[in-house]
Specification:
alpha/beta; OB fold (Dihydrolipoamide Acetyltransferase, E2P); binds magnesium ion; six-stranded parallel beta sheet
Length: 675
């Protein structure tokens, strides 16, 4: 008997079942044992329909009249009537079209969901449904609910797991025995038994906690190891030149905020160390990160080191090059732009200047990591909007120096506390939590599409006062083919409606130099109104722009909307953000949150709650961070696992002795490392 035995070899598993299991990606006994329930139901708590109150309810009811009632803008609504001996109610499912074929008219099911008043009546919203006859024999205890996968039905999974109970004692321990004992954890084998065959809700919860602990322990061990490895790397200290810092600060047209000062101080301290800095500067849109980066680039240049400053788009790189030149030229520091559109002879000259060190601050896009770029003496790497880059791109830039350069990454998408402690545990973090003085929070309004003219009237007022306006169009379809048509149509419409003003158009399919020109025209107020796709989302800084309209706002994510809104409110004038919905239906939770708050940290926490970390941080950087059980919002468990991981490392035990652990930890190390 062995956990890697094929499921087909287990007694009682027929050929047909084995086929279904294979299709669902389950091959061995171990695979099925780790096929965890998505939740539990206590069917002994069923209520009579006549007696239910708004809130979470479970009923046992007969289904009738299932129908797909509406379909518009990709939204499907399935409805059904549920009845028991005491009464009837309506159930609705949004975007679950398979519900229509799931039920057999007249059969009994358990339904579990939220009973609430919405769309003008009381109904059961998106209930889960389980065929009652499958559960009746054990309705006196809590029942694990499995996902159905292809042809594999939840009931089958339960029956199969019953046959595998014998194998459970073979489940390997993952953690060092000292940790299991020290943290008073149940064994992993017991945890799996309690997850599949719980006696009570408390027991199931305890078991899940154990598995969640393991995931977090691995993740935290990985980031602690990264931190240790980082501190052993060699870099070159950049000395703190007090006079240079003083005169830089004195040259600014404004006073630095306290948090800018603190952040700069943290960075300066790190630069003096022989180990490379690995610091994230996070600050809400408009909090003034660029000038902090400019200050340290100035220090580096004065000490004879080059800075590579990488931005995600050409438009942004060009803007940064402008800004940094302004900040640095008077200190005799040269600032050079290198992007895809620097071509031919010019490009060769830039390469040469980088190689011989005359280019002291090199601002650019991905072009900075191409083979041809050889730095003379790279001491500092700054990565703006770091979440836009993959781990690999950052690493390539870092390996461009002979010694490891110091790294300053910047982001306007703040990292929630829970993620700071886990995924980003090996980072030092500075936060700009003040907006420069004199700025007023942007006033945000959700607007239905019928009220367009009212919004236009508001724009009239802004334009008449000499201010500028962004008008953002959403991506219309997946492959983007209609987007250009859409934004061009809007552009024509606005040109007519605002005939007295000049209107610019910016979208992704334009040539880069055209894009940069359009952006500069807006920056220098040659255009008053800019119709654009989300190309403007990151970083654009036009303080005279005081209104932004986002069309089809419901199609955007929370972080994206916050970024877009951050394009305004950068000067001293009151600014406005109008979120135009695509239908007149009830606004989404996301839109309500963004209307309510301008606090990027609050919104980041909400985003994490609404979408989960995989969606937000997953795509580019953390593709493999697929936590099965652990929740990154569980700060208590994170703290416990963190303590345990550090104690384990301090105990001097060799990680390599724990074969099960090593593989996972190394995988996580790759995901979380910056170097
Ligand atoms: P972000 O953090 O979003 O990258 P920027 O660095 O683009 O923000 O700064 C936004 C604007 O605020 C710029 O126009 C910049 O010159 C200005 N700014 C930065 N710091 C201050 C300050 N302390 N006081 C006033 N304005 C500032
Ligand atoms: Mg910026």
């Amino acid at each position: 008997m062995d956990l890697s035995a094929p499921l087909a070899s287990v007694k009682g598993v027929g050929e047909k079942t084995a086929e279904k299991l294979t299709k669902a990606g389950l091959f061995t006994v171990r695979d099925l044992l780790y096929y965890l329930p998505r939740g539990y139901e206590d069917f002994s708590r069923v209520q009579d329909i006549a007696g239910i109150r708004p809130g979470r309810v479970i009923i046992k009811a007969t289904v009738s009249g299932v129908k797909l009632s509406r379909k518009r803008r990709g939204l499907t609504i399935t409805e059904a009537t549920l009845s028991d001996t005491t009464g009837k109610l309506r159930a609705v499912w949004f975007n679950q079209p398979y519900r229509r074929t799931q039920f057999v008219d007249g059969k009994e099911y358990y339904f579990s969901g939220e009973f609430e008043f919405s769309y003008g009546r009381y109904q059961l919203m998106n209930p889960s449904a389980e065929l009652a006859s499958e559960y009746d024999e054990r309705s006196d205890e809590i029942v694990p609910i499995y996902r159905s996968s292809y042809d594999l039905k939840p009931r089958q999974v339960r029956v199969l797991l019953g046959k595998l109970e014998l194998y459970i004692p073979l489940v390997e321990e993952l953690l060092p025995a000292s940790v299991v004992a020290g943290e008073k954890l149940v064994s992993r084998a017991d945890a799996l038994r309690m997850i599949h065959f719980p006696k009570s809700e408390a027991e199931a919860a305890r078991a899940r906690r154990r598995l969640a602990f393991d995931e977090l322990f691995e993740l935290l061990l990985a980031s602690e190891l990264n931190r240790q490895e980082n501190s052993r790397l060699k870099s070159t200290p950049i000395p703190f030149d007090v006079a240079a810092v003083r005169s830089f600060v004195a040259s600014l047209p404004f006073k630095l905020t306290d948090s800018q000062r603190l952040a700069a101080w943290d960075i300066i301290k790190n630069l003096e160390e022989p180990a490379p800095m690995n610091r994230l500067l996070q600050g809400d849109v408009g909090s003034g990160k660029t000038v902090v980066a400019g200050l340290v680039a100035c220090l580096a240049a004065r000490a004879g080191f080059q800075t590579a400053f990488m931005a995600p788009t050409e438009v942004l790189a060009a803007q940064h090059a402008d800004t940094l030149s302004k900040l640095l030229t008077s200190f005799g520091v040269n600032c050079t732009l290198l992007t895809g559109s620097v071509k031919g002879k010019n490009r060769e000259l830039v390469y040469k200047a980088i190689a011989d060190g005359t280019a002291q601050v090199v601002v650019g896009t991905h072009a900075l990591i191409t083979k041809k770029v050889q730095y003379h003496k790279l001491g500092l790497v700054v990565i703006d909007e770091q979440h836009r880059f993959g781990v690999k791109q950052r690493q390539e830039l870092l390996t461009k120096g002979r010694l490891m350069p110091h790294l300053l990454s910047m982001t306007a998408t703040p990292i929630p506390r829970s993620l700071q402690l886990t995924v980003f545990g090996d980072l030092d973090i500075s936060t700009l939590n003040q907006t420069p003085t004199g700025r007023k929070p942007v006033i945000t309004k959700i607007v239905s599409p019928n009220s367009e003219e009212q919004v236009f009237k508001k724009l009239d007022a802004e334009l008449a006062a000499g201010r500028q306006v962004y008008y953002i169009c959403a991506q219309v379809d997946e492959n983007g083919s209609d987007d250009i048509k859409n934004v061009q149509k809007e552009y024509q419409k606005l040109k007519k409606r605002f005939a007295g003003y000049t209107t610019g158009l910016l979208h992704g399919r334009m040539k880069t130099d055209e894009k940069v020109k359009t952006m500069r025209d807006f920056l220098y107020k040659k255009t008053d109104l800019l119709v654009a796709t989300t190309v403007v989302e990151v970083g654009m800084d036009v303080p005279n722009a005081t209104a932004i309209v986002v069309r089809d706002a419901d199609r955007f994510g929370l972080a994206q909307l916050h970024q877009l809104r951050g394009r305004v409110g950068r000067g001293e004038q009151q600014s406005y953000c109008y979120l135009v919905t695509s239908t007149s239906a009830k606004p989404t939770r996301r839109l309500l949150e963004i209307e309510k708050s301008t606090d990027g940290f609050y919104l980041a926490e909400k985003d994490l709650e609404l979408r989960g970390p995989g969606e937000i941080y997953g795509k580019v950087q953390h593709g493999e961070l697929d936590l099965q059980v652990a929740k990154l919002s569980d700060t208590r468990l994170i703290a416990q696992a963190s303590r345990a991981a550090r104690a384990f490392l301090a105990s001097g035990q060799d990680l390599l002795e724990y074969k099960e652990l090593v593989g996972d930890v190394q995988k996580y190390q790759k995901i979380t490392t910056l170097n």
